[in-house]
Amino acid sequence: MWNYEKRLEYKVNIKKCDPMLAKVIITQYGGPNGELGASMRYLSQRFAMPYKEVCGVLTDVGTEELAHLEMVCSIVHQLTRDLTPEQIQAAGFDQYYVDHTTGIWPQAASGEPFTADFFQSVGDPITDLTEDLAAEQKARTTYDNLLRLIKDPDVRDPIAFLREREIVHFQRFGEALRRVQDHLDSKNFYAFNPAFDCKTK
């Protein structure tokens, strides 16, 4: 299904360690609005989508979210790769370090581990795409919050790129929702599940 190019979607080249930033940025790996949940959400939802063109959008965006996951992990890795024990303790990175050293592990900024509860796949195109629109806005908001905290331009640059992609994904899901509605009677397209209650040709 995929051809993997061994490069990041957007370059990450961070020169200075900063475990305090790593502690908050990691939420976009395994937090409630992060890239792991997004990729699993869209790649799971695509199987129940009755319309090929919308299934294609879910596949495209879900695949790109995997690339974003790789970028976030690269950012966290580069922020923590050369830490000393003194820096770990001074930044309050010691709790993470004790469990994971400087390995990358999916969790929220609060320390809550990733769970499948962070995403939904209910098999109803309108429900799922509405969920996806909200998910992209929540991810954009999280990136906005991160950008308010980040001063280092080497870190800001890839985070700003990721934020822009959330806006594009929101637009694509809006278009996908309109496509689903175009397949239905506008008077009742919230009244039943087109993936289950009526089989499409």
Brief write-up:
The chain has 8 helices and no strands. It is mostly helical and 201 residues long.
What does this structure look like?
This protein has about 200 residues and is an all-alpha fold. About 60% of the residues lie in helices and about 0% in strands. The protein has helices spanning about 20-25, 25-30, 35-45, 50-80, 85-90, 95-100, 125-150, 155-180. Helix 3 (about 35-45) runs antiparallel to helix 4, helix 3 runs antiparallel to helix 7 and helix 7 (about 125-150) runs antiparallel to helix 8. The radius of gyration is 19 Å and the shape is elongated. The model has no long low-confidence stretch (mean pLDDT about 95).
Itemize the secondary structure elements and their pairings:
Blueprint: H1 19-25, H2 27-30, H3 35-45, H4 52-80, H5 85-90, H6 94-100, H7 125-149, H8 153-182
N-to-C span? 25 Å
Task: Please give the largest β-sheet.
Answer: none
Mean of pLDDT = 93
Which word captures the global form? elongated
| Alpha-beta classification | mainly alpha
- H/E element string? HHHHHHHH
Percent helix among the residues? 55-70%
pLDDT < 50 stretches: none
Radius of gyration: 19 Å
SS field, number of helical segments: 8
According to DSSP, the number of beta strands is 0
Oligomer designation: single chain
Q: How much β-strand is present in the residues? A: under 5%
